[in-house]
Specification:
about 190 residues, mainly alpha, about 80% helix, single chain
Length: about 190
């Protein structure tokens, strides 16, 4: 499972449950897409959108032709997006001082982000949002809770790095093997570079 291990593990459960059909091939992405709409609703609420604005945003995404086309594809993009949005929703709900819930939510968000990345690396572009959110949190709080905010991001990166490191060790045996097989000896990468 060198590429998309989380997606293929989820897909294997569906195939065992439903058999190998076009339905079982597409259901994982479709269910994830619908769950992304639910997460989008909760994210809009977290960002203090009005009920009308929240429903408008969700409706615009739900009626988007590209969104609907991807709903019935067998791709892994919505699965990855689901993990990414779930991680951000968990991460953005961390408030107050450092506590057990604080640490658990930061680590949980890191695990969800690693699942997103281990579903498809195409989600990597969305990780930049965390850098903007970091700056927003610091500026909005006028650097009063710098230590707590910084720790939250460190915990997120620790969990993400740990999960990704475990996958590299299990799949490739060592970091240098991962780099060699993914970047150095990859005919796909050599054609694009």
């Amino acid at each position: 499972l060198a590429y998309g291990p989380v997606y293929f593990i989820l897909q294997s459960f569906i195939v065992k449950l439903c058999g190998l059909t076009i339905f079982s091939f597409r259901i994982t992405n479709m269910v994830s897409g619908f769950l992304c709409l639910l997460l989008l609703y909760h994210i809009c609420k977290r960002l203090n959108f009005s009920q009308w604005a929240t429903m408008l945003v969700v409706a615009l995404v739900a009626l988007d032709p590209q969104f609907n086309q991807f709903l019935h594809s067998g791709r892994m993009d919505f699965v990855s997006l689901f993990f990414c949005l779930s991680g951000w929703l968990m991460f953005s709900s961390i408030e107050g001082g450092i506590s057990g819930k604080y640490v658990l939510y930061a680590l949980g968000a890191g695990v969800l982000l690693s699942f997103a990345l281990l579903t498809t690396p195409r989600i990597l572009f969305a990780f930049s949002f965390y850098f903007f959110y970091f700056a927003y949190e610091l500026l909005a709080d006028k650097f009063k809770n710098f230590g707590a905010v910084f720790l939250k991001y460190v915990l997120l990166l620790v969990a993400l790095s740990f999960c990704f490191g475990v996958w590299i060790y299990v799949e490739f045996g060592a970091l240098h093997n991962y780099i060699s097989e993914t970047y150095t000896n990859s005919p796909i990468m050599q054609e694009h570079v």
